[in-house]
Amino acid sequence: MTVTWEELGWERIAAGVGRCRLPGWDCTVGLVIGDDAALMVDAGSGPAEGARLRTEARALAGRAVTHLALTHPHFDHVFGAAAFADTEVFGAAGVERVLAEEREALRGDAVENGLHARVADEAVAALTLPRHLVSDEWTLPLGDDRQALLVNVGPGHTAHDLAVLAPGSPAVVFCGDLVEESGAPQAGPDAVPALWPAALDRLLSLGGEDALYVPGHGAVVDAVFVRAQRDALATRFGVS
Questions:
Q1: Helix, strand or coil for residue 4?
Q2: How many Cβ atoms sit within 10 Å of the Cβ of residue 2?
Q3: Strand-pair partners of 90
Q4: CA distance 79 to 74
Q5: 6, 27, 123, 237: which is deepest, by most CB within 10 A?
Q6: Are 17 and 168 in contact (CB under 8 A)?
Q7: What is the C-alpha separation between 62 and 65, in angstroms, rounded?
Q8: Beta strand pairing status for 38-41 and 67-70?
Q9: What is the pLDDT of residues 62-87, one digit of tens each?
């Protein structure tokens, strides 16, 4: 039995491309479906949430998730990755060190932001590290009908920001938290403010004027929104 995106609480953005806004932190996960593979973008905030997303993605794709791209190393995007331990996991080069060596800091940030300590402990203990590290660009074939482009566009929101482009009409760019719609972009201690506007310039060159841009939090936006946020960040941080 075929299910629709809407029946599972997902939003269809383009043919074979959708996303889900998760409760709690309004974090977005994405799904890009090809004939031979299915790519998840981010994994949610805990193992149980990750497992639910994996089940829903399989129902939508008609196949198991084969690839997972982590846009950056914050708990609400990576703590569900344990549910995807047998997939091919991708991240920006350097993110593996953060996930391996800074687990206590990740746990502390999660608990401070409201994640139950037991869930945080479970997630940290089972955290899946990316095996494939993207230093520039990585073309990922998903079948004869589709490919995805993984691009290391940071630093910006963090030192290790990865974007995912799903070409098409329209093209869809998953931005991670380089772009936020439901609130002002958050610049924590691991942000690189001086380079954040340049990261958004690269996002815009990647997707172009007609693409749809999927922020890490909030509604899907267009290039005009991304450019305005870029200019606001440049003003906020005193960079050109």
A1: coil
A2: 7
A3: 69, 132
A4: 8
A5: 123
A6: yes
A7: 9
A8: parallel
A9: 999 999 999 999 999 999 999 998 99
Res. 1 pLDDT band, cuts 50 70 90: low
Residues present in the chain in total: 240
pLDDT in tens, 25-75: 999 999 999 999 999 999 999 999 999 999 999 999 999 999 999 999 999
What is the token pair recorded at 220? 């899907």
| Best CA proximity match to 14, nearest among 1, 32, 35 | 32
Model-level pTM? 0.97
Contact of 98 with 162, CB cutoff 8 Å: no
Model pLDDT for residues 194-236, shown as the tens digit of each residue: 999 999 999 999 999 999 999 999 999 999 999 999 999 999 9
Q: Read off the tokens for 164.
A: 């995912």
